[in-house]
Amino acid sequence: MDQSFLVMLSNLLQLHNSLDPTSSLLSDTLASTTTTAIASSASSSSSTSPTSLLYSSSIAPLLFFTIASVLSYVASSRPSSSSSSSSPDATTTTPPPLSSSAVSDYSVSAFRALSTEHIWSLEAPLRDAHWRSLYGLSYPVFTTVVDKLKPYIAVSNLSLPSDYAVAMVLSRLSHGLSAKTVATRYSLEPYLISKITNMITRLLATKLYPEFIKIPVSRRRLVETTQAFEELTSLPNMCGAIDASPIKLHSLPNGHNLPGSYRCRYGYPSVLLQVVADQKKIFWDVCVKAPGGTEDATHFRDSLLYNRLTSGDVVWDKVINVRGHHVRPYIVGDWCYPLLPFLLTPFSPNGLGTPAQNLFDGMLMKGRSVVVEAIGLLKGRWKILQDLNVGLNHAPQTIVACCVLHNLCQIAREPEPELWKEPDEGGPQPRVLDSEKSFYYFGESLRQALADDLHQRLSSR
């Protein structure tokens, strides 16, 4: 109860006793707690029942109760003020309360009101556009993510509902928010936001990765992919395009002690993301295991994909014959990558080859454009990748988690956001390693055969 009201009530009590000494409110209050004693002594003039105040000859009791009732009503209807507000130090120790709009927008109850089954009764474009603006994807895709993660979240004993936790993390990934900003919105501690973010991104990067990021080895998918690339480039048996992109780090760990190898070619600290995409801009391989200053070729040679391709672990059951060469499915990249039978690169970065070679280079770069657009979509949809504000130890899993979410959106044919544009890249052609010389010579003859065949086919039309 308000302290000022208690003071006024005490003053009224003293006033009442001075005006009507024949009755005592305190004695009546004590007597009312022992009803049996009151009943047995009702005929005694030395005890006064609570109702006797109403029959007192003085008007003081009635006046007291009238004023006390008015003050009680005023005290109960007036918003209570925090006792700490009178202390000059209170504002430094207690964070200001969230506004009513913030509480209504981000509380569990508000989220539950949005995510009940009634949302399915809304028109799909309106429902999904609203959900996409909050969490980066439509409501059906969101429920897919939640359903797949819920069993793993359940065993973590998280005190928040699974869908609420996933929504919180998606809002951070899609808008690029810091843990502190999300904590303010959701009335939680920043360390808890970081903990939940790390848990959800780890689950996405490990549990959902095998399901949504897969090398196209099945016959049906391989044929679909190579045919789509051939329609785009007129080059047969192309099954993907590879590229790398630096992911900017928001801050350096331990101040400025980050090794210089993390500074990318654009000048900012980063880690390097390598992806291979198909014609639908869906990633079928993702690798994040190098500082941003690492050369693309070095990163590729250190990747699991390189080891699997060079060892013959990946078996593509689709071989065609081009001018006496057995051409297995291959990926394409720019001149920063090594030339290999399963990774074809341009003849020249500046069009100094023969007409057949220049035609081949143009078509190869046209096929490579799908991975450039895929990376642009990835960073445009999950803005946290434009300025990664997580710890360096959690950077790889956060990046891979966004790649998984990107694939989910592409598979569901979510609307594509504005592409994130990066400066044109350049770099020297990598040297041929001794262990790659046989691969290089075979890739060189294979590339020339494809170029000559392409030139002949297009020239005869």
UniProtKB/TrEMBL annotation:
<dbReference type="GO" id="GO:0016787">
    <property type="term" value="F:hydrolase activity"/>
</dbReference>
<dbReference type="Pfam" id="PF13359">
    <property type="entry name" value="DDE_Tnp_4"/>
</dbReference>
<dbReference type="GO" id="GO:0046872">
    <property type="term" value="F:metal ion binding"/>
</dbReference>
<protein>
    <submittedName>
        <fullName>Harbinger transposase-derived nuclease</fullName>
    </submittedName>
</protein>
<keyword id="KW-0540">Nuclease</keyword>
<comment type="similarity">
    <text>Belongs to the HARBI1 family.</text>
</comment>
<feature type="domain" description="DDE Tnp4">
    <location>
        <begin position="261"/>
        <end position="407"/>
    </location>
</feature>
<dbReference type="GO" id="GO:0005634">
    <property type="term" value="C:nucleus"/>
</dbReference>
<keyword id="KW-0539">Nucleus</keyword>
<dbReference type="InterPro" id="IPR027806">
    <property type="entry name" value="HARBI1_dom"/>
</dbReference>
<dbReference type="InterPro" id="IPR045249">
    <property type="entry name" value="HARBI1-like"/>
</dbReference>
<feature type="region of interest" description="Disordered">
    <location>
        <begin position="79"/>
        <end position="102"/>
    </location>
</feature>
<keyword id="KW-0378">Hydrolase</keyword>
<dbReference type="GO" id="GO:0004518">
    <property type="term" value="F:nuclease activity"/>
</dbReference>
<keyword id="KW-0479">Metal-binding</keyword>
